[in-house]
Amino acid sequence: MLEGKALVEDTDMPVKMQIQAMACASQALDIYDVLDCKSIAAHIKKEFDMIYGTGWQCVVGSNFGCFFTHSKGTFIYFTLETLNFLIFKGASSSD
């Protein structure tokens, strides 16, 4: 496990959820090859859907751009090892 080595770039998540995000990312890196970003992202998304309800999105990689709207309190962007992690819950039209 690599907890404590993640660098949070930006977030509006509660601290407990941030810790869960980084622990889940660390767990995924223990299971999957660091080059298998799709499997790492799927692992994190499924975990967050199970714990916090459906609708979560996860992007993992070393170089990506994005533009999205998220639900308040559900966004985190952090770096762990050589990868960047973006986790958020999509906003509905009523958010």
UniProtKB/TrEMBL annotation:
A biological process term (GO) from this entry: microtubule-based process
Keyword vocabulary terms for this entry: Cytoplasm, Cytoskeleton, Dynein, Microtubule, Motor protein
Primary location: cytoplasm
Pfam hit, one: Dynein_light
One GO term describing the cellular component: microtubule
Domain of life the protein comes from: Eukaryota
GO molecular function: dynein intermediate chain binding
Entry annotated with the keyword Heme: no
Subcellular location: Cytoplasm, Cytoskeleton
InterPro entries linked: DLC_sf, Dynein_light_chain_typ-1/2
Family affiliation: Belongs to the dynein light chain family.
PANTHER family found in the cross-reference section: DYNEIN LIGHT CHAIN (PTHR11886)
Name this protein carries in UniProt: Dynein light chain
Classification of source organism: Eukaryota, Viridiplantae, Streptophyta, Embryophyta, Tracheophyta
